């Protein structure tokens, strides 16, 4: 036990730092954002389009990123940068105050317009997308703000709600939302419950990550197993333990799900 | 380590830098040590611990059985193995003991002649350490969850008390009056803390999910309420606007310099705030399991280069980096839930108490001497310098 590898503070690793400082300084910020973007794209490939008949853009949940990157604060910071630049959109899904969905702006725009083609609400939605998407990175919109700043009329707001781009939050304010996302949320919650049940029922309440990914999915689990695993690890519904045979997922007691 | 000593000696580095680096190294190597333990006196769980500020020698503990114990932490015996003994206790047999569980104890910040304890029997008692009799007793209408005296106060001697009542009461030690109240919360007050930087700034956390910061000199309400979304009203549902947490806010701790404030809540989150502006620094600590129905008592390290937060999480104490938010380690050792922890700034030790009636001392592991040196020392009898037999030669002598 005396030979256990001790944790060393950064200040004591001076020599290593000096050598890598030179090349890290130039490429650091770009590397960070690109890192997140590539992880986002990787997670979006796990999203199955066929399931929703191609009507939804690929959606990733924010906490799925936490399972890929260890430093949550830097992930949050980089996501905020991407949102400020207008590349990424964040949505508040209804079921959990901490669960946020991320969609690339171009994908969102393409899918929404594709869904609206031929309907009478098309122009209003186009106007909304042109005004809202590049400028503000809010998750919900207040009625006065929509009327005064963005110059929408009441009937236009009703049309937007009808088309699914806005959903009701409260008297006088609306959440930004993804049209046709109800099915997604339903399958997601069902699948998460089923996967957690699989972990719980395993022997001792724990299972190797590779084994879980290889298991056959029941009819309740519509999404890919990998995406559910990222979700439960990132939301800390299971404890992730490194063992010599790989990562072990142990069910954490006291979960509501 | 040698490079730090050299730099300090030659004046390249500030003297503080060596101290900080060494403190950080010691905190990172905290471990349960069989050489050090604390005498077990409580018959029921331990709710609160406090180490006095002046010497760091005496520690107070308050338990669920109403018993208050004072321990001597200093090791005066020449042996390595040391058990912190009790100096005195206010036991169940004392006439003035609290009837129900003691929730908070605190030493008087300026000397150890006095300490204050508050309990679920709706009283707060100011004790004389010499005679162990209460010098003053304050009665309240509801359970007293917490109290705090300002560690830096010179101009006032107010004790802030958080009870079941949404009004924060300020009791004056000098006059015994309690007319000053702070109104603004809508739920029970689970935690109160004075700022270690300004003697008039007070932070309070309540079950209505709000954390307010007050200046007690002001006649009108709080200075500001901590908002987890930093004023971005679009992020939360409309009921959650202007709240610090999505559940009950039940823990407060200022950093040692008073510039940042940490809050924990039953939404399993811990947040770091800038205490001057009330801005959420958005450091993401992940899920900090918090099921406490009363206040949570946690602590921050002092004088370390990246500061550390020690939070009781279930049956272990979690150590997080303060500004990075990463989980450094979990200190496991208790048999049941941990309720409180206290950091000893001079020796970088952590004392934690919990429902298993134990107080565990987490001590930094010193550098172990190499096994080779130990053997040669025992062979020759310790006084000579330990020399590796490979470097010994036959012609040099030790004298001269």
TrEMBL record, chain A:
Q: Which organism is it from?
A: Phoxinus phoxinus
What are the BP-aspect GO terms?
A: positive regulation of Ras protein signal transduction
Name used for this protein in its record: Serine/threonine-protein kinase 19
Q: Which Pfam families match?
A: Stk19
**Family, per the entry?**
Belongs to the STK19 family.
Q: Which domain of life is it from?
A: Eukaryota
TrEMBL record, chain B:
Q: SMART domains recorded for this chain? A: WD40
Q: In which pathway does it act?
A: Protein modification; protein ubiquitination
Q: How does it assemble?
A: Part of the CSA complex (also named DCX(ERCC8) complex), a DCX E3 ubiquitin-protein ligase complex containing ERCC8, RBX1, DDB1 and CUL4A; the CSA complex interacts with RNA polymerase II; upon UV irradiation it interacts with the COP9 signalosome and preferentially with the hyperphosphorylated form of RNA polymerase II. Interacts with ERCC6/CSB (via CIM motif); promoting recruitment to lesion-stalled RNA polymerase II (Pol II). Interacts with KIAA1530/UVSSA. Interacts with a subunit of RNA polymerase II TFIIH.
Name it: DNA excision repair protein ERCC-8
Region of interest (Disordered), ranges: 372-400
Keyword list, A-Z: Chromosome, DNA damage, DNA repair, Nucleus, Phosphoprotein, Repeat, Ubl conjugation pathway, WD repeat
Tell me the ranges holding the WD repeats.
Answer: 95-137, 182-217, 242-283, 331-362
Which PROSITE patterns does its entry note? WD_REPEATS_1, WD_REPEATS_2, WD_REPEATS_REGION
Q: Which Pfam family, any one of them, does this sequence belong to?
A: WD40
UniProt-listed InterPro entries? Rad28/ERCC8/Ckn1/ATCSA-1, WD40/YVTN_repeat-like_dom_sf, WD40_PAC1, WD40_repeat_CS, WD40_repeat_dom_sf, WD40_rpt
- Domain of life of the native organism: Eukaryota
Q: Please tell me one Gene Ontology term that the record gives under cellular component.
A: nucleotide-excision repair complex
From the record, what ranges are coiled-coil?
A: none
